[in-house]
Amino acid sequence: MQAKEAKGAMRSLTALAKAAPELDAVVRTDDLIRLLEEQIHLQKVALLEQGQILRFHHGGVTEVALALPQAQEDYLQRLILKARGFAEARLLAAVEALGLIGPKVTVCDIGAHIGNHTVFFGKVLGARRVLAFEPLPMAHATLLRNIELNGLGTATAYNCMVGAASGRGRVDRFNPRNTGGTTFVSAKEGPVPMIALDDLLEAEEMEGLGFLKIDTGTMQLPVLVGAKKLLKALKPAVWMTLRPEDKATAEAEKILTGLGYRAQRIGPSDQVFIAR
Predict the structure, then answer these.
(1) At what angle do helices 75-83 and 2-46 cross, to 10 degrees?
(2) Alpha helices for 47-162 (secondary structure H)
(3) Per-residue pLDDT of the chain (276 residues; tens, 9 = 90+)
(4) Strands, DSSP E only, in the chain?
(5) Cα–Cα distance between 189 and 166 in angstroms, integer?
(6) CA–CA separation, 167 vs 194, rounded Å?
(7) Rounded to 5 degrees, what are φ and ψ at 257?
(8) Pairwise CA distance, residues 105 & 101, whole Å
(9) For residues 151 and 155, what is the distance between their CA atoms, to the nearest angstrom?
(10) Rg of the chain in Å (alpha carbons)
């Protein structure tokens, strides 16, 4: 039996050796394609307007400008440049179709990053006000720039975390090639300020609050915990990415259903919870 298996193994190795030139050719072709794609991307970066600004017409109607200072390597900014339009365009279109955001609605964009969604909510959907929260300083600076570029005078960008309680936090993980995936954790002596949404319930800026977008990685559940009073009182719709494998998903769904929300799925992992 061992001799038979050995002969079988040798035949497999021989076949693989004969195929090696073809396999090498496939590998070389893949490498060439990746190299060409990277060269095309770098050319697109070089052609950006001074300040690395991309301008496009969303839906052929709304003129949008987005500063992309890390477009050469940052994942999200590369996506925007490749599409010459908003990232997550299908999800944004699904949110638009729900008809939840308009001139009378204030939106909280929690985990706003460079403002892809903030600009969409404010300029395309015409939200009454957009309150954007972004704790990463480099992303917050670009967020401010994109608010300015699009004339969103009713948008405000806060350089802070949102969590279960007001306090402090810190960066947990940072990847310069995907700054939008930066994660934060609460930390008593951390350098990053953190606010709980419940502490803003009576703030004038929250008037007309009708929509929350929560995209904060590992902080999704703490954001909800710190917003129970606000959710109960104002009943804004809540857009969250909730992956089945995430341990916090079941708890987040429990909180929202317990407050009288029902889920509307808009993507494989994205749901908009709407108060009944």
Answers:
(1) 70
(2) 75-83, 89-98, 116-119, 137-149
(3) 344 544 444 454 455 455 556 556 666 677 778 788 888 888 899 999 999 999 999 999 999 999 999 999 999 999 999 999 999 999 999 999 999 999 999 999 999 999 999 999 999 999 999 999 999 999 999 999 999 999 999 999 999 999 999 999 999 999 999 999 999 999 999 999 999 999 999 999 999 999 999 999 889 999 999 999 999 999 999 999 988 888 888 999 999 999 999 999 999 999 999 998
(4) 53-58, 62-67, 106-110, 129-133, 155-158, 161-162, 167-173, 183-186, 192-195, 209-214, 237-241, 261-265, 270-275
(5) 13
(6) 5
(7) -65, -35
(8) 6
(9) 9
(10) 23
Q: What is the pTM of this model?
A: 0.88
CA-to-CA distance for 65 and 137, rounded, in angstroms?
A: 20
| Bridge partner residues of 274 (DSSP) | 262
User: Can you read off the two tokens belonging to residue 231?
Assistant: 């959710």
Fold classification of 87-275 is Rossmann fold (3.40.50)
CA dihedral sign, ordered 132, 136, 141, 146:
negative
* Residue type present at position 110: I
Spatial separation of the C-alpha atoms in residues 127 and 155, rounded to whole Å: 9
* DSSP state for residue 121 in the 8-state scheme: I
φ/ψ of residue 270, rounded to 5: -110, 130
Q: How far is CA 274 from the centre of its chain?
A: 20
Report the alpha-carbon angle 164-180-32, nearest 5: 155
Count other C-beta atoms under 10 Å from residue 178's C-beta: 14
Q: Which two tokens stand for residue 8?
A: 């079988």
- Contact 123/64 with Cβ under 8 angstroms? yes
**Rounded-to-integer distance, Cα 40 and Cα 17, Å:** 35
Looking at the DSSP bridge assignments, the partners of residue 109 are: 132, 213
